[in-house]
Write the structure tokens for this entry.
Amino acid sequence: MFSGPCVVFQTPHFLEQGKRHHTRFFPTEEENADNNGNPKAGTVVDRGVTDVYHFDFFLQAHGGLQGTTRPTHYYVVHDDNGFNADDLQTLTNAVSYLFARATKAVSLVSPAYYADLACERGRCYLHKLLQGVDSSGTSTTSGQDAEEQVYREATLLWHNGVSGPALKDTMFYL
């Protein structure tokens, strides 16, 4: 059993993260570069290219396998915990090592990866409903009856959902 220190956050803390940007960083000295010429894993940039008035930073938590790596841009939306910049950046870097499918750090924090996997799995389950095709192969009608038709179709597709004994207490791998 783990008997070390445990940190429990009782107040919310929200970070927005993004990878769809054109920002790249290159080390100015060779000893700060990895084998591909990228900055080493765990590199944080929080001055010069970040917002002057808000709390944001770039973190390259992962080592690039090929080509130029793209750091993740983190923007603190809400912080009731009062983290200082160094503590939050260290915590964010540490959480990027917790993704179960990888033995090294990943580019985004693990909860974001798991949320993305869950959304993709949900999209697969909802694909027929989102396309408007029912079990008979015809497209659904629009209007007042459409919502009831979608509900009936979902019940048929998912065999009454996860309320049954076979799936109620079951978990699947993401």
